[in-house]
Write a structure and sequence with these properties.
Layout lengths: L1 E2 L10 E9 L1 E9 L2 E11 L2 E9 L1 H8 L5 H6 L5 E7 L4 E7 L25 H20 L2 E7 L10 H28 L6 H15 L2 E6 L3 E6 L11 H17 L7 H10 L2 H15 L4 E6 L7 E2 L6 H6 L16 E2 L1 E5 L5 E5 L7 E2 L1 E7 H6 L9 E9 L2 E8 L2 E7 L4 H19 L1
Antiparallel strand pairs: 1-7, 2-3, 3-4, 4-5, 5-6, 6-7, 8-10, 8-11, 9-10, 11-12, 13-16, 14-15, 17-18, 18-19, 19-20
Helix pairs in contact: 4-5, 4-6, 4-8
Length: about 450
């Protein structure tokens, strides 16, 4: 369509750089009003040049400069309006036609295989542009395939915000522990028959582990939302094809089995059939510590544009099925007490030495006599206000220690299974003290 009423001054555009230059600019990158354009010299006839002005985005420029798309396809597949401009050699615009890529005359199109081998110098605008875009495109690529988790507080006091300590010490650490335990369990389940050498498998897994981690590609704060993606690019360095395929799929498998929003019967059966009880305990205990905590919600969604659903175990029997309660048998060790006698040797310089009588006929016995005085009563807080001397006997019978005494014709006895003589003595003195108070 020819239209002389369109006013377009190419001189008002900012030239970024000439991409192709042969005696004169053939393909140039321009900017105008924040938009990117390519100006392509398509023909020269008599006194005129014919240019094609193409509105384009940075992603497509990057693809063209890195040999991912040909100039032919760049023009033909472009959905924006394009402008065929007729200029004289003085730069005056004489005519403009508005067109689209699918309608452009074949005479104005480059070869079908018009790919560009482009190597910018370090001073070129595109040197930094390409390196920066590679980094950004890597993140964007991961983000396109990311799933999202959301941690939020159930307390109205804090709205749905999460505290830093809660996030790091209770939520993220549990998620990380669960995922690492899943990776190890699934790796050994998958390859233990193919590679039966356990030590070799351990070394392979340890080397592989850093590349298996999810990449954080998106964050939102308040409630804590994180986009997690599986890094397919870095896994290309894994030489073993079976392990490479497993490493690409294992992240999705974890999301499907462990971060399931309802744990239906089929999912639970798959979990139980694939992992033994100890493996399940290591994988799911950290996750259930989050989902069963009434202070938090854990939500998951398939992509950035999806809706969140809460990861919640509605039927608590499912938890018991996945990680059965451990029944621990407490073993009680039978005690067999004996009374061991000691001899204390005193010298005139007031130094003393206590000697245990070992390897003699007298080193142990089932009973011995002691004397309780008013000083012993005072020691345990019982005041008598008179002097007493009461004979008592300590005896043992396997796991029982007994202390008995006879006072004013009455027999007092206490028993204990711990072997703590001090406690036993205090109990006996308490009984005798109560008797004295009641009879005097």
């Amino acid at each position: 369509m020819e239209n002389n009423n369109i006013h377009l001054d190419i001189n008002q555009f900012e030239k970024i750089e000439d991409i192709i230059y042969l005696d004169e600019p053939i393909l140039s990158h321009l900017k105008y009003n924040g938009k990117d354009f390519l100006l392509y010299l398509v023909d020269t006839k008599e006194l005129y040049d014919y240019f094609l002005l193409i509105e384009i985005d940075e992603a497509t420029i990057f693809e063209y400069l890195t040999n991912q798309i040909s100039l032919f396809n760049l023009i033909k597949e472009n959905k924006n309006f394009q402008y065929l401009i007729k200029q004289d050699f003085q730069g005056n615009t004489l005519n403009i036609q508005v067109t689209q890529g699918i309608y452009i005359d074949e005479n104005y199109l480059p070869d079908v295989d018009s790919f560009l081998e482009y190597f910018p110098t370090d001073k070129s605008y595109y040197y930094e542009f390409i390196n920066s875009y590679k980094a950004n495109s890597y993140t964007l690529s991961l983000r396109e395939h990311a799933f999202y988790l959301k941690f939020s507080s159930t307390s109205s006091k804090y709205a749905d915000t999460i505290g830093l300590n809660e996030l790091t010490n209770e939520l993220l650490v549990n998620l990380s522990d669960s995922f690492e335990n899943f990776l190890k369990a699934d790796f050994f389940q998958r390859f233990k028959k193919i590679k039966p050498n356990t030590n070799k498998l351990q070394k392979i897994f340890k080397k592989l582990l850093p590349d298996l981690d999810f990449r954080m590609v998106d964050l939102k704060f308040g409630s804590f939302e994180v986009g997690l993606a599986i890094d397919h690019i870095m896994k290309s360095s894994i030489e073993d094809n079976d392990i490479k395929d497993w490493s690409i799929e294992v992240g999705n498998k974890y999301k499907k089995l462990v971060l399931d929003d309802d744990y239906d019967e089929a999912t639970v059966e798959e979990i139980i059939s694939n992992y033994d009880e100890e493996e399940r305990r290591k994988i799911f205990t950290p996750i259930f510590a989050i989902t069963e905590n009434p202070n938090f919600n854990l939500e998951v969604k398939e992509s950035k544009k999806s809706n969140y659903s809460i990861v919640k175990i509605r039927d608590k029997k499912v938890i018991e099925k996945i990680i059965p309660t451990k029944i621990e048998v407490l073993k009680t060790e039978k005690k067999d007490f004996e009374i061991v006698q000691f001899t204390t040797v005193l010298d005139k310089n007031l130094s003393s030495k206590t000697i245990k009588l070992e390897n003699t006929l007298f080193n142990s016995t089932n009973s011995t006599d002691v004397v309780l005085t008013d000083k012993d009563f005072e020691k345990f807080g019982f005041s008598l206000k008179k002097e007493v001397s009461i004979s008592a006997q300590i005896s043992t019978n396997k796991d029982t220690v007994s202390l008995s005494a006879k006072f004013n014709g009455e027999v007092f006895e206490v028993n204990d299974h711990t072997g703590k003589i001090e406690e036993l003595t205090k109990k006996l003195i308490s009984k005798i003290h109560e008797y004295i108070l009641n009879t005097e």
